[in-house]
Amino acid sequence: MVSALYFVAGSSIFKVTKNDSVWSLYEMKAPHNFYCLAIDPIRPKRLYAGTFNDRLWISDDGGTTWEPAGKGIFHDRVLSVAVSPTEIINGYNVVWVGTEPSELFRSEDGGKTWVHFPKLLDLPSKPTWRFPPRPNTHHVRWIQPDLHDEHKIYVGIELGGVMKSEDKGIHWEDRKPGSQYDCHTMTMNPLAKGRIYEAAGGGFAESQDGGKTWATFIDGLGSDTYLVDIAVDPANPDTIIASAAQGAYSAYDPGRASTVIVRSEGGNPWEAIHDGLPKRHGSSIFSLISHESEPGVFYAVNNLGIYQSIDAGKSWMQLLEDWPESLVKERVRWFVAV
Hints:
This protein has strands at about 5-10, 10-20, 20-30, 35-40, 45-50, 55-60, 65-70, 80-90, 90-100, 105, 115, 140-145, 155-160, 160-165, 185, 195-200, 205, 215, 225-235, 235-245, 260-265, 270-275, 285-290, 300, 305-310, 315-320, 330-335.
């Protein structure tokens, strides 16, 4: 079962725990505004957090105190971090970090030292990579280590596409037709070897053959084709939820946000889910997660609250009655469970 949920907003990191069916929220001040977050599955109190201009930080006490990571990441803007669930070396799960401008780094000693993987930038599509709000640059938005094969890793460039390596980042394959180039997040499912799910600015795309071929599926989304986060039922690889908006303008800023959670089951068209969730106006984009220990359960968090679904995303309930007023105008970033 899930023992704790973490998310970041503003200059704080928040921890949500459950005790005798009662959920509680704890706020911990961060040394900098965090942009991304990951948990070590072997050491559940070890957290890795990236910042916009202040490097990568590590906590060994569940987020109470933080120290900067070791040297080797030569860009200060760390916008993605992932801990491999399958590759363990000398007692440490391998950690991957992505930066702006786009570079990829790997640590095999818990973040003490880092190795750079430059061949990601040798791909033919690289001259076309760009991030529209900062058009002179681009970044590694998401890192997805393969759940079934420690040699494979998928990297989402914003805006560039999904790149794949089959030898732990040494060599890379370029984006494939049918995938989405404005990649925001990816996920996999423990029951579906080779299946990759992508939420992107142009909708939903997936590969069922380890990234060799892709197909985009937007039936039912209507104008809500701007997808930001995605989660899959651990018990059913065909049950998917995503957070959606009509575009970037209405996705992130709570002051002008208008977003919704969408759901697809069994390959059927997407449908908007409203039961137990806030009205879309003023509701910024949700961060979503599922956990393999809880079949049929999803969690969602945004500026208006944290929610749980126990029926595979069909209906939702708010977990905390006393939601901090300070969060209502904040963008919530990154959501992880342990």
